[in-house]
Amino acid sequence: MFGSRWAGLVGGTTSHGTLGAVLVLGKNLLDQVVCHCLDGYPLEACGLLAGSLEAGGTARITGLYPTENAAASARIYEVDPRGMLRADRDAEAQGVQIVGVYHSHTHTDAKPSPTDIDQAPDPDWRYVLVSLRDLHPSVRSWQIQDGKITEEPVVLE
Amino acid sequence: MPVDVRLPNILRPAAGGQATVEATGETVGEVFDDLIRQHPGLREQLLTPEGDIHRHLNIFLNDDDIRYLGKLDAKVGESDTLTLMPAVAGG
């Protein structure tokens, strides 16, 4: 729908991340992530990322599961547990797995907060942040491992 | 009775890499006891020191969240499936 409108708003073009780590997703999926986050404003929006984790550190995102923010808050999010269950089952049926989560920050940077770091559920997952603070959204992807964050490049296909 | 327990990726290393483990019990609690007996490394990831379900876990008995079925006292039946999911949250 938006084509490459968001392409210029994707961060992580420097190699801060773990050597070889990169997030790959289609422009249409990026559009969907940003639109879902905009639709959720002024509350935080969240959803699950499905795809595969490849040798060498590439996370290839092939699908999304926008979910309800059970916390219904502008400051925190909670993926609705039943939404997580449905997403996990559907991903398995399609031969992929849940490999990460995206959520929006309504008034701060697209960078994991202390809460995000503390509650990160899986060190192998990718954490995509969408900041709605400024006129144009920004999108960045991160790994969170042992309390530390490392940014990774986002490659649009 | 035996039930299948489906584990999320993060718990599989403690279960020898298995995605699904068969465990026995009449309640969720008993199934957990058997699961932990088979794989002791799961204990601290499933339960708090007080014996409650770890807050980072959501647990489904088939399609139902066990928080609404009595938690560890929820009764399990033949061919039931327990699915353990990470609680995904942040801010």
Question: Outline of chain B, from the CA principal axes?
Answer: globular
Oligomer state of the chains in this structure: heterodimer
How many structural domains of chain B? 1
The DSSP helix count of chain A reads 3
Q: What is the overall silhouette of chain A?
A: globular
Strand content of chain A: 35-45%
> Strands of the largest sheet of chain B, in order across it?
2-1-5-3-4
User: What does the largest sheet of chain B look like?
Assistant: 5 strands, mixed
Radius of gyration of chain A: 14 Å
Total of DSSP H or I helical runs spanning 4+ residues of chain B: 2
CATH architecture of chain B: Roll
Using the coordinates above, name the CATH class of chain B: Alpha Beta
Helix content of chain B: 10-25%
Describe the structure.
The complex is a heterodimer of chains A (157) and B (91). Chain A has helices at residues 27-40, 81-93, 114-119; strands at 22-25, 46-53, 58-67, 77-78, 97-105, 126-131, 138-145, 148-152, 154-156. Chain A is α/β, with parallel strands linked by helices. Chain A has a single domain (9-137), classed as Cytidine Deaminase, domain 2 (3-Layer(aba) Sandwich), CATH 3.40.140.10. Chain A has an eight-stranded mixed β-sheet. The two termini of chain A are 15 Å apart. Residues 12-17 of chain A have low confidence and may be disordered. Chain B has a single domain (2-86), classed as Ubiquitin-like (UB roll) (Roll), CATH 3.10.20.30. In chain B, strands 2-1-5-3-4 form a five-stranded mixed β-sheet, with helices on one face. With 91 residues, chain B is α+β, with helices and mostly antiparallel strands. The mean pLDDT of chain B is 95. Chain B has two helices and six strands.
